Sequence to fold (295 residues):
Amino acid sequence: MTTVKPANAPAPAAAATVSDDRHGAALRFADADRAPETSLRSLLRDSGIQAGRLLLRWRRDPYTIVQAVVYPAVMLLMLWAVLGISITNATGVDSIYGTTPLMTLVGAMFGSIASGLALRRERDEGLLARFWVLPMHRAAGLVSRLLAEAVRIVVTTALIVSVGFALGFRFDQGLLPGIMMLCIPLLFGIGFATLVTALAVNSSKVPLVELLSLTTSFLLFFNSGFVPTSAYPTWMQGFVANQPMSCAIDAMRGLTLGGPVAEPLIKALAWSLGAIVLFAWPAIRGYRRAAGNRS
Fold:
């Protein structure tokens, strides 16, 4: 059970401690009179505290670890062992340059889905409402989640790319394009995490996050990471080429192996930034409602 323990200080706006007994996390927020709750300093401080809590919680949650790291890494190994040579021989392009970017996106997306389910549990258990009454910046709850998501995505991407390197993946276009390639899953994942957060805090009885997981699984099998777009039936090529995962994969392939970069990169940025812009306000409004502020 999650408990709130006010500090034994005489001041009415004294520091407060929130403990999450199930995960062994205890958060202590500084006295409110040190900085206004609406200040940038409070936002940075409180977001850092909350992000640390989320990272600790995810690290101790086997479901999140499996979804974000184990599953994509195992899938990458399976695709390379079962289909890699056949796809490479059929297309003339080393398949690892498609499947490694694909799995970095899968890690970002599936990890966000797992954290979205955890967010919904926190809402149902009343933890979000408990945080809302503490002397902390109102935006820290959402900012900290996106910050924690960014850290998780960077770590997951590095681990999956390391597995890809063991299987033959390389930065053939140089270090700078390689670094740019690593940034694409980060931006893509932040856009997807914004979508997941909006669904998690706004869904009550309809399992929107679970339905999104099914949609993600569908996109997993219809993108340019397995085989080039030209290998799909003609009537499917337009969908495959322009769906968000394919745009990001094509941009990452171009930055590592070589090939077109500008067009798929612009499309990937449009999908990612579009998701952030479109779902930011529903996420903010839904979070306020979930935390008990219905004004």
Remarks:
- The radius of gyration is 21 Å.
- Residues 1-14 have pLDDT under 50 and may be disordered.
